Fold this protein.
Amino acid sequence: MAKVKETPVIYPHQDGRHLPGAKFMKVIGILAIIFGALGLISNVVGLIGIQSLATMSSADMSEIQEMYNGDFMAQIDLAIAQRSSIIVQIIQSVAQLATGVMAVIFYKKLKLATPPLIGAIVTIILILIANILAMSIVGQFVGMQIISLLLSCIIPVLLIIACVKKDASLKAAKRITIE
């Protein structure tokens, strides 16, 4: 027997928490906040580490270069080139954090969840840019970059699904007015 879907009903005293997709949007929003904050912290620490390598004195550099048989300068050049990728990743983490905050705010509103939806799309675009930059630094196609790309896009894609589900149920909802 086919399952009959009930049309959501919105009463005057209710907000959007009971709509299908609203709780899912809140949970994914909280996860986006957590992972956005973790990404922001780790990328800022990585940027500070690269900065400390770039500001070493020439005596320290020659000492370390002898220790690594001259390959250390190539590693420093690579680390300095990664700055652009890390800066894009910091921007992406801030976008994911902001998108998570918007999702937590919009899950209970009787409005379309357009801002979190746009934020999730922007986050995915920034993830793509950061991964392309990282692949260009390495200079070759790396399988771990594809895995990183896929794992990084899970939260924004789930947030897009939650926003679309909530918006569809909001559009289909039957509003009841009490006079």
